[in-house]
């Protein structure tokens, strides 16, 4: 029990050392810029320095989105990519194509006994012991990631996310919730980091245990018992959303998607989530993204999100789609007392939006393009904690030599498998 409170207690200690109070001059400035744009960033009654980040965002966007890259980035056409696409088809949670709802339910019912994720129904979970055993007092920060695809599709780009994480937080501890990586193959993938003394582990999450006594418990029970249609797209997508909420609700810590490059330690932030876009006039957020979450355990927002998840999946009650869930819930609660929520500006985690991210994969050709990449790197180094690469749209893109992404990958790393030569795309053999 003492352990379970650890994150919370020590996070306050850490926070008190690192929080920067806004200077008095920034407060009136901010007010002048956005009177009436209600921004609500309160952490334990302290206005954090993130307030003053909003006005600067225009500058960042100008640098990051300057329209100099003319041609499109190249697509990968190598063997490696074909192998990757094929292995992704092995995702155990993608239901058979073009079948009825009844057929999908039947398919899933047969599948459940094989799915490690759903195995336990025990209050004394082995998973829980693994979490308590892994995050000891030497972890400066507690990270979680999730990987529900097969181990063979965990490629060099995903590895680069881990590599950047340990560059930023060498004393941090990372638990990857993943049935497939909790294996010999997973051990081989993580070995280079473990050999260097970094604390990383892959553990099969115990979903029934994680959602116990949360509003999502019934949802998981129904799915498990085969009375709920798992849906036609990918159950992994929804389960990943659910697991990140449940694990932070239970233990607290930092959750990150595996398509980030982490530039800085996020220690010092608590109960924070990133805006992905803001209104250019009011400066108020328009979309919040759940790819990066920094929360104390049992935070009320996580509870609300779990409840919303369980309700919306039903389809009959709310009828909104998954990706909007976080924004919708936060819009309802952001001004309520007791939430202590920090909404970070887009440049913190999403400095480049998904429509424009591909330019970061392109080789700069002219002198002004090189200069632009330099400026971007400086800007990212000053104002971004982690850059989201929007894998859904970019995993097919080649990381071209000298591109911003290549530069980032070869800078923010300890093992640095991406080097500056053209071999960056060769498939690494784990
Ligand atoms: C929010 O901050 C207040 C004041 O510090 C504290 O009492 C309360 O527990 C915090 N709530 C959460 C959910 O962290
Ligand atoms: C889906 O299944 C139906 C009936 O089995 C069939 O008529 C239809 O052509 C299939 N569609 C695709 C895209 O395979
Ligand atoms: C439940 O936990 C107990 C004790 O840890 C163990 O002996 C038992 O096999 C577990 N049952 C299941 C279904 O996991
Ligand atoms: C676990 O589930 C099995 C059937 O799936 C049931 O027989 C058993 O009683 C359950 N155990 C607990 C502790 O809920
Ligand atoms: C922290 O690390 C030291 C040295 O490796 C070890 O002796 C100590 O037991 C660790 N502390 C905890 C709480 O695990
Ligand atoms: C980022 O900025 C810090 C301090 O401002 C500097 O020490 C560091 O070298 C920079 N890193 C890169 C990769 O530019
Ligand atoms: C509750 C939830 O997030 N449900 C989503 C599951 O995934 C599908 C798409 O794959 C969404 O449409 C649902 O909204």
TrEMBL record:
InterPro entries: A1-4-GlycosylTfrase_dom, GlycoTrfase_DXD_sugar-bd_CS, Nucleotide-diphossugar_trans, Put_A1-4-GlycosylTfrase_plant. The keyword Transmembrane helix applies. Residues 295-416 form the Alpha 1,4-glycosyltransferase domain. Coiled coil: none annotated. Pfam families: Gb3_synth, Gly_transf_sug. The keyword Transmembrane applies. SUPFAM superfamilies: Nucleotide-diphospho-sugar transferases. The chain crosses the membrane at residues 21-43. Keywords: Membrane, Transmembrane, Transmembrane helix. PANTHER family: ALPHA 1,4-GLYCOSYLTRANSFERASE FAMILY PROTEIN (PTHR46781). This is Alpha 1,4-glycosyltransferase domain-containing protein. It comes from Corchorus olitorius.
């Amino acid at each position: 029990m003492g352990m379970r409170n650890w994150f919370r207690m020590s996070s306050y200690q850490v926070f008190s050392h690192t929080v920067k109070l806004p200077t008095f001059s920034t407060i009136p400035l901010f007010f002048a810029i956005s009177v009436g744009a209600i921004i609500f960033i309160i952490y334990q009654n302290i206005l954090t320095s993130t307030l003053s980040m909003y006005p600067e965002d225009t500058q960042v966007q100008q640098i990051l989105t300057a329209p100099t890259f003319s041609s499109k980035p190249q697509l990968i056409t190598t063997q490696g990519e074909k192998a990757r696409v094929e292995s992704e088809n092995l995702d155990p949670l993608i239901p058979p194509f073009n079948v009825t709802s009844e057929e999908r339910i039947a398919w899933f019912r047969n599948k459940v006994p094989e799915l490690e994720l759903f195995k336990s129904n025990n209050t004394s979970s082995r998973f829980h012991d693994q979490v308590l055993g892994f995050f000891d007092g030497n972890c400066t920060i507690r990270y979680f990631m999730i990987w529900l695809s097969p181990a063979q599709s965990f490629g060099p780009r995903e590895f680069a996310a881990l590599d950047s994480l340990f560059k930023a937080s060498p004393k941090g501890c990372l638990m990857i919730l993943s049935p497939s990586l909790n294996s010999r193959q997973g051990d081989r993938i993580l070995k280079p980091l473990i050999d260097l003394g970094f604390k990383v582990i892959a553990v099969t999450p115990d979903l029934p245990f994680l959602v116990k006594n949360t509003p999502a418990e019934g949802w998981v029970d129904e799915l498990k018992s085969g009375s709920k249609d798992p849906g036609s797209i990918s159950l992994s997508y929804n389960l990943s959303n659910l697991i990140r909420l449940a694990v932070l609700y239970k233990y607290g810590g930092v959750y990150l998607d595996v398509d980030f490059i982490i530039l800085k330690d996020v220690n010092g932030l608590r109960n924070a989530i990133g805006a992905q876009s803001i209104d250019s006039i009011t400066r108020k957020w328009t979309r919040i993204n759940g790819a990066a979450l920094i929360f104390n355990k049992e935070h009320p927002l996580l509870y609300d999100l779990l409840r919303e998840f369980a309700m919306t999946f039903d389809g009959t009650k709310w009828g909104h789609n998954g990706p909007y869930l976080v924004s919708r819930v936060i819009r309802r609660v952001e001004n309520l007392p007791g939430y202590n929520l920090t909404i970070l500006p887009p440049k913190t985690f999403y400095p480049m939006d998904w429509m424009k991210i591909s330019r970061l994969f392109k080789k700069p050709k002219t002198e002004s393009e090189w200069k632009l990449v330099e400026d971007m790197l400086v800007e990212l180094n000053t104002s971004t904690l982690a850059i989201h690469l929007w894998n859904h749209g970019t995993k097919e893109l080649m990381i071209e030599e000298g591109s911003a992404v290549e530069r980032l990958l070869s800078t923010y790393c300890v093992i640095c498998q991406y080097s500056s030569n053209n071999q960056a795309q060769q498939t690494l053999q784990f």
